[in-house]
Amino acid sequence: MFRSLQHEQLNYEKFKTHEAAKLSVIDYLAFYNDRRSHSTLGYQSLIEFEREYFRDAD
What we know:
Elements: H1 2-8, H2 18-34, H3 46-57
């Protein structure tokens, strides 16, 4: 995940403040967990995969 963060987000931005960098990382984490598809999870997001996993576990 940290490699993705560096490659997909941080390499392309210049931050003026520490707070701006922090908000950028928070935004990326929300994207990574909620919307970014993962090939190892059948092209689902992490949230979709967890919902399905726990629904099937009941």
